[in-house]
Design a protein that fits this description.
CATH topology of the largest domain: BirA Bifunctional Protein, domain 2
Distance between the termini: 71 Å
Helix content: 25-40%
Structural class: alpha+beta
Number of helices: 18
Radius of gyration: 27 Å
CATH class of the largest domain: Alpha Beta
């Protein structure tokens, strides 16, 4: 039974039983409390809490999906027979449509009748603290098979917590086949609050998860997940010199698969958040390829095979884009890899401090240092490495605080820092200048240019944005001239409060991965939203642009800003440079402040 057969059987099984089949969501979640989509239920969280209406959106209280998922908590364990970074999660969900009886019956029928597998045993929640044992599930299992082996487990095994800091949760029942847990059925009866207290949900729901890789392993009677038809074609592309090096082979194919999906969902290598994870994955592949003399064409072939094998199910997989990002990261990393490995070779032992120095100086990720270091790095741990990283960040932060006169800052938003009223005026002018800069970059380069970060001190602004190449001197001059032209025009800066939806509809730019409240503040530079409105601040439930001329800039922002661009001064670009693949940085100042 191929993995494609399993996918098809699963979706058809639940579609016949009244479930709406919902496509996989992106690996980049809308929930800001998590870095990646880690489970099938994440896209459905609002339906469990009553914030969204499943009948309106799906025409059913019950859904099913095959969700691409990503977990990095076990990244150091990848290379054994069971751990992965990227995986696919088969799941069926109900938001008040059915509960324990139907969920267990569906699972039993699919495993035993549809797949023809024998259940070894099932586990149920045995009760703990103030949460009672799940005796109802035991009775349902016995009604299906009176000889079934049922094992009671505690909270750590059979009580599923929320994805993120808070969310739906509840007791679980799990199905084991050939000693492997293949299906976890969560009975969402509670809502876990941020303080970890539990509240009863008004409508209990069903959330199930079944890893395709594990299911393929037991259905195909394989010894481990890497022997299945999901991985075997990829491992076969590796050269014979790697035979016997199972761990390295598994790391390369797992990380390549995860990287392919991340890149296709819009992640680019960087030193922050999702981009940092992608960089770690790619650089680990590069290092192992380097050590075994694996040609780049062989790695590219692996990426091409991944795109080909999964393309029918996930058409967003873009072979050319995946290989392009890999090539760019490889070119960038090769410049420092040899130097880093040479420096690593000089060390007698590798502790947290020396490992961080290798990371900071050469970009060698923890996993590479740990593996290549061998016995030298025997005492090196991830927690120690991260503690060293944290220590250096605190030193840097202390330096910045000292620069601004200690901890008593008048303003510290993370983006803007000011120690007194005079510095506050300066950063306010520079902050408005970043909006003019952002708008000018989009007008001159491409509307796809997006802000990636900003840092403002009383001396200068630093603005990061997406763009794939170095700007020409002519382009930089055009940008600088456009900003200064907007300043000379003495454009009004209007602060407007409205709903988030209306703000986006009005054309305001936003960080879409950032969580916004229902009511937001929009700063418009240029023609005002309402004709004849002279006040610098107004509230509205509906944007009402009346001017035929579009605004120079409109963004969601918390402020502060000047009231008119004439207050900014003369804008001057100091430097343009690369930050990471497809991310550039401009440093600029405003003369005379």
């Amino acid at each position: 039974m191929s993995h494609g057969d399993i996918r098809e059987k699963f979706l058809k099984f639940f579609e016949k039983r009244g479930h709406k089949i919902v496509p996989s969501s992106s690996l980049l979640p809308t929930d800001p409390s998590v870095l990646f989509t880690t489970a099938g239920m994440q896209q459905f969280k609002p339906y469990y809490t009553g914030q969204s209406d499943p009948m309106k959106d799906f025409g059913s209280l019950n859904t099913a999906s095959i969700q691409k998922s990503m977990r990095t908590s076990d990244i150091d364990k990848v290379g054994d027979e069971s751990h992965l970074t990227f995986f696919e999660m088969l799941g069926n969900f109900s938001f008040g449509g059915y509960f324990k009886k139907e969920a267990i019956e569906y699972a039993y029928d699919f495993v035993t009748k549809e797949l023809g597998l024998t259940i070894d045993y099932v586990s149920v929640f045995g009760g703990e603290e103030d949460i009672p044992a799940d005796k109802e599930s035991e009775k349902i299992w016995k009604s299906l098979d009176r000889n079934i082996d049922i094992r009671e487990m505690g909270r750590s095994d059979n009580f599923w917590g929320p994805t993120g800091k808070e969310g739906p949760c509840g007791p679980t029942t799990e199905i084991y086949v050939n000693g492997v847990e293949i299906w976890n059925i969560v009975f969402n009866e509670y809502y876990c609050n941020e303080d970890k207290s539990l509240s009863k949900l008004d409508k209990p729901g069903i959330d199930t998860g079944m890893g395709l890789e594990r299911l393929a392993m037991v259905a195909q009677k394989k010894g481990n997940i890497f022997e299945t038809d999901l991985f075997e074609p990829l491992i076969q592309l590796l050269p014979g010199e790697m035979n016997g090096h199972d761990r390295i082979q598994r790391i390369i194919v797992d990380h390549s698969r995860a990287a392919a999906f991340l890149i296709s969902d819009g992640v680019v290598p960087s030193n922050k958040e999702q981009g940092y994870v992608l960089r770690r994955l790619l650089r680990r592949v590069i290092v192992h390829s380097h050590n075994f003399g694996l040609e780049l064409d062989a790695v590219r072939e692996i990426f091409g095979t991944i795109a080909g094998n999964y393309g029918r199910v996930y058409p967003e997989l873009d072979k050319e884009k995946i290989i392009s990002e890999f090539d760019k990261e490889n070119e960038k990393f090769q410049k420092t890899l040899k130097g880093g490995l040479k420096e690593l070779g000089k060390l007698n032992t590798v502790d947290s401090a020396s490992a961080f120095k290798l990371y900071e100086s050469f970009g060698l990720p923890y996993e590479v240092i740990k593996e290549v270091g061998g016995n030298k790095a025997e005492t090196l741990t991830r927690s120690g490495f991260e503690q060293e990283m944290k220590r250096h960040r605190e030193i840097s932060r202390a330096g910045a605080d000292k620069k601004f006169g200690g901890h008593g800052l008048l303003m510290d938003t993370g983006e803007l820092k000011a120690g007194d009223e005079e510095e506050l005026k300066k950063v306010t002018r520079l902050h408005t200048a970043t909006h003019l800069l952002h708008a000018s970059l989009r007008k001159i380069l491409d509307n796809d240019v997006q802000q990636q970060g900003s840092d403002i001190t009383p001396e200068r602004l630093r603005f990061d944005f997406t763009f794939s190449r170095k700007l020409t001197p002519e382009e930089l001059q055009q940008v600088e001239d456009m900003v200064n032209d907007a300043i000379k025009k003495e454009l009004p800066v209007i602060k407007t409060e409205m709903s988030y939806k209306d703000a986006i509809r009005s054309g305001a730019l936003a960080f879409f991965k950032q969580k916004y409240p229902n009511r937001v503040t929009v700063y418009t530079i240029g023609p005002e939203l309402v004709e004849g409105q002279n006040s610098s601040t107004r509230t509205s439930s509906e944007p009402q642009p009346n001017s035929s001329e579009p605004p120079f800039s409109r963004e969601l922002c918390g402020g502060p800003h000047v009231s008119n661009t004439r207050e900014i001064g003369k804008f001057k670009i100091i430097k343009e440079e690369a930050v990471s693949a497809d991310v550039r940085r401009i440093r600029a100042m405003v003369e005379g402040i």
